[in-house]
């Protein structure tokens, strides 16, 4: 057997990552016999074992066992011993892009894509379809709060976070697509922003059913214009088929009106931020295009309680609310801080952990204005995610770009020292895609 179907023995190298762990869960529920390995133990590997997946800590050739097929994470090096063992044995091998394309041949894919907001919008869609009484498959970058794990095999379509990193979406042909935003990222793979936008354009062109696009975003407009594909436009600041109006933001909630060809929906969210309104609007219109009723759309979006590490409220420290957010690109940081400001916070301290050496080098100048809505900024050293750093680049590169409101703190101990000197914040935001969130549990005196 050489494809993804019930009974196939599948081994996943790098099973502990957000994307591969969800894939492991989905395949196990489908009926595959799933095993995997990861470099380190984690709560994710523990949870996979509870779900019936055999997980090995560390990489060894004999971990492959009796597998028929081997999948691997894009983060796995080509000289990984399990990768090489599978190749020597002549096993069928699939990278993540091939696996997702294969699954897309079994179920229609309802995808959400963009350089940020994918996890949130996909999770919103899961809630909407649940409110409509459906049991769809899902692949999301984080657990769906109030529903379940990041991967699930269901009876309907496959609701999927469509990831652009490493060209993962290059072989996928969705049935329906929500296009959220596009800004320069993963340029170590794509080379130029233009090449990145071309990849999104190709994805739009491969989509066989409705494409819903947030056209307030310049990158989205350029990518859509480069195709001959008709899209369903959604916007708050320009003319579009569906318009977002009367947006209201509070510290932990938001509301808006969505007006379009079939009438008006009043949507109340239990999360804040203009970016979340945009995500919700796109998810709503995708659902409506697929025939989901307006009542289910409103109910499902109202049940969404956020995604882990997406403006996630952690507690209070001194006189400040503490949040963690996955934002690690300039546009994401701008949106997160603007959302916090619009929600009523006036004295914001941002702690930012740069993610990846190549991204820091290429985008450092773009971070100069990203922190305009923060009163104080502390930049940590780089979370390298395994990248080499031959030139010794540090987070100081970004701190210098931000300017005098910003300090560089090389270690987490230095960060805590810097925070101790800041006395008048009403919000502390821990920003980044690495382990910056662990700082919340080390704050002097603890969270309240």
Description of the molecule:
With 448 residues, the chain is an alpha/beta fold. It folds into three domains: 9-95, NAD(P)-binding Rossmann-like Domain (Rossmann fold, 3-Layer(aba) Sandwich); 107-303, Mur-like, catalytic domain (UDP-N-acetylmuramoyl-L-alanine:D-glutamate ligase); 312-442, Protein-Tyrosine Phosphatase, Chain A. Helices cover 31% and strands 23% of the residues. The strands form three sheets. The chain has a ten-stranded mixed sheet, sandwiched between helices. The protein has a six-stranded mixed sheet with strand order 16-17-21-18-19-20, sandwiched between helices. Helix 5 (118-131) crosses helix 9 (274-289) and helix 7 (193-206) crosses helix 8 (218-225). It is globular and about 60 Å long. It starts with 8 loop residues before the first strand and ends in a 17-residue tail after the last strand. The mean pLDDT is 91.
Short descriptors:
alpha/beta; Rossmann fold; UDP-N-acetylmuramoyl-L-alanine:D-glutamate ligase; Protein-Tyrosine Phosphatase, Chain A; 3 domains; ten-stranded mixed β-sheet; six-stranded mixed β-sheet; 21 strands
Structural domain tally = 3
Q: What percentage of the residues does DSSP assign to strands (E)?
A: 15-25%
Number of helices: 14
Shape-level CATH architecture of the largest domain: 3-Layer(aba) Sandwich
Q: Predict the CATH topology of the largest domain.
A: UDP-N-acetylmuramoyl-L-alanine:D-glutamate ligase
Please bin the fraction of helical residues: 25-40%
Structural class: alpha/beta
Broad CATH class of the largest domain: Alpha Beta
Strand order of the largest sheet: 8-7-9-6-10-11-12-13-14-15
Return Rg in Å. Answer: 22 Å
- Mean model confidence by pLDDT: 91
Main sheet summary? 10 strands, mixed
Fourth-tier CATH superfamily name of the largest domain: Mur-like, catalytic domain
User: Which regions are unreliable across 5 or more consecutive residues at pLDDT < 50?
Assistant: none
Got a strand count?
Answer: 21
